[in-house]
């Protein structure tokens, strides 16, 4: 027996409604994906702009960032600015610091109070202070004395490999064992009585003079929240050192 006409009409109606809902969800998903891509692109453009300001030692303002970089995405400025600031801090070791809350003026300074600008030569376009801060943190995580093999194992996970040119940091071994040793930020010494010879990293006198263990650990607090690991013991040691210094 043929289905009643009203039943066929209802089935067609439900089918059409399902198609419309599916199409609407797909359109919504496409729109969100496009917005996400646009925000990411603006974030990278803002990072490039801030790096130019850092190299030129010039301040910037919110108004300048909006007009020169953000443009049609001004409603999303807080998110874009936050992502770009975090990228500047963790990748390059640079803080975007507000110095005038009325005119919203910002300066770009090396993080943790370090005086090293991270520019090895005039031909280098990317500051490498972010990697220095990571090395100082790794030394702390290893109990103030980090075996070289452990350092490279961790850096390899980040894509920073011994003997391989990195797109931001250049040749990392040169930085770790020569540049930052000459700058007095780290000590690179042979492990006593090791045969064959093994090497280890320690904080240098300039690192101790310019920053503290607690500041370095706080710098990575957001990362620790995602991967707590040894946070309590590391912070306890750092606080103890701060009290001893006081």
Automatic annotation (TrEMBL):
Entry-linked InterPro entries: MAGE, MAGE_WH1, MAGE_WH2, MHD_dom
Superkingdom of the organism of origin: Eukaryota
PROSITE patterns: MAGE
Disordered as annotated region, ranges: 1-31
Compositional bias (Basic and acidic residues): 22-31
A single GO BP: negative regulation of transcription by RNA polymerase II
Domain MAGE: 39-238
Gene3D superfamilies for this protein: MAGE homology domain, winged helix WH1 motif, MAGE homology domain, winged helix WH2 motif
Bias kind Acidic residues: ranges: 9-21
Any single Gene Ontology cellular-component annotation: nucleus
Residues of the signal peptide: none
One Pfam family per UniProt: MAGE
Protein name as catalogued: MAGE domain-containing protein
Organism listed in the record: Pipistrellus kuhlii (Kuhl's pipistrelle)
